[in-house]
């Protein structure tokens, strides 16, 4: 049976009532294209708007972004030729008679007011994991602020967050404390109404047997073939033996965490501090006359290590503890 381009069928078959869905897959399988069609369809069917999100405002201001935003929609006949893209979104014509899609960045989410967006049904967060792993401050909190302000508890509203395979170490998954199961295409957290789809077995514009994948593999380029070659699942792994410990330990919820240097990677796991080591608390509640709060220089070391993709964790829970220090207000 021939493969299909990405669509929401698999996600909806498992988590149709998920309010937020994180969709992570290789490039060129049709993730953004499918959600663009959804935005067009929802306008023509019910005159409902879509809010299109990016992490940083500069991404939405790039002329290349606005000039090419509707290319596929017009080529496929999903929207009228009169539709036009401006820096603030898509309108039905040059006179801005009606706005179909609103552009919004996470970095400026605090400026958004809810009374101006009563007709938004979908939020589509494109490239929620940037390749440079550099996120806006308080990214997870800002996404929550937008959903609360814009969607206003609307039960038929949905937020779809799209990304190529980058890293499970991101502020959104850390903030919700979610992590995909390797054996599942769709991991659903019904108690949170959140789902993660790891996109597998979809058609790709660059199929696996394409010789260009040999070039991408040789260059160490992310997601050249499948999620198994990417760091999406490699962050959580068993702590190796024979490494060298950092003399700094972290205290969180009564548990102490240590970091071992081993073959260029920093492995975090639960352990007892070595004699004379420095122990810092991750919250003020756990500070004492012997344990102070984590200093900024430690946070900066962790942030740089995360951007360099050298952090590893023995469990998702350990990952959440460490990432909470890297991403402000997670």
Architecture overview:
- This protein has 330 residues and is of the alpha/beta class.
- It folds into two domains: 9-216, 3-Layer(aba) Sandwich (Rossmann fold); 244-326, no CATH class.
- 27% of the residues lie in helices and 23% in strands.
- It contains ten helices and 16 strands.
- It has helices spanning 9-15, 31-46, 57-61, 63-68, 71-75, 139-151, 171-176, 212-218, 296-307, 316-326; strands at residues 20-25, 49-54, 84-86, 89-91, 99-105, 120-125, 158-164, 186-189, 194-198, 244-245, 248-252, 255-262, 265-270, 278-281, 292-293, 311-313.
- A nine-stranded mixed β-sheet has the order 3-4-5-2-6-7-1-9-8, sandwiched between helices. Strands 10, 11, 12, 13, 14, 15 and 16 form a seven-stranded mixed β-sheet that branches.
- Strand 11 and strand 12 form a beta hairpin.
- Helix 9 (296-307) crosses helix 10.
- The protein starts with 8 loop residues before the first helix and ends with a helix.
CA gyration radius, whole angstroms? 22 Å
Enter the CATH topology name of the largest domain. Answer: Rossmann fold
Uncertain regions: pLDDT < 50 for 5+ in a row? 222-229
CATH superfamily grouping of the largest domain: P-loop containing nucleotide triphosphate hydrolases
What is the number of independent domains?
A: 2
């Amino acid at each position: 049976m021939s493969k299909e381009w990405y669509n929401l069928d698999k996600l909806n078959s498992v988590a149709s009532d998920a309010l937020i869905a994180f969709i992570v897959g290789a490039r060129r399988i049709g993730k953004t294209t499918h959600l663009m069609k959804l935005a067009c369809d929802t306008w023509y069917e019910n005159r409902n708007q879509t809010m299109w999100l990016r992490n940083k405002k500069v991404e939405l201001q790039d002329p290349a972004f606005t000039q090419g935003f509707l290319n596929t929609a017009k080529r496929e006949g999903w929207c009228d030729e009169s539709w036009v893209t401006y820096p603030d979104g898509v309108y039905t014509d040059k006179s801005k008679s009606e706005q179909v899609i609103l552009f919004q960045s996470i970095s400026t989410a605090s400026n958004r007011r809810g009374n101006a967006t009563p007709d938004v049904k979908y939020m589509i967060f494109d490239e929620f994991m940037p390749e440079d792993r550099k996120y806006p401050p308080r990214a997870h909190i800002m996404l929550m602020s937008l959903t609360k302000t814009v969607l206003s508890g609307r039960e038929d509203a949905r937020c779809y967050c799209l990304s190529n395979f980058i890293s499970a170490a991101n502020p959104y998954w850390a903030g919700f404390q979610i992590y995909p199961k390797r054996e599942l295409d769709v991991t659903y957290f019904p108690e949170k109404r959140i789902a993660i789809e790891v996109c597998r077995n979809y058609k790709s514009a660059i199929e696996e047997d394409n010789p260009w994948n040999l070039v991408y593999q040789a260059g160490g380029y992310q997601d050249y073939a499948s999620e198994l070659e990417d760091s999406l699942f490699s962050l959580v792994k068993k702590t190796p033996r024979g490494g060298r410990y950092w003399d700094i330990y972290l205290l969180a919820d009564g548990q102490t965490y240590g970091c071992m240097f081993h073959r260029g990677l920093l492995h975090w796991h639960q352990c007892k501090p070595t004699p004379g080591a420095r122990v810092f608390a991750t919250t003020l509640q756990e500070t004492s006359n012997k344990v102070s709060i984590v200093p900024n220089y430690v946070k900066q070391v962790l942030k740089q290590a995360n951007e360099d993709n050298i952090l590893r964790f023995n469990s998702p829970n350990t990952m959440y503890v460490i990432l909470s220090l890297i991403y402000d207000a997670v």
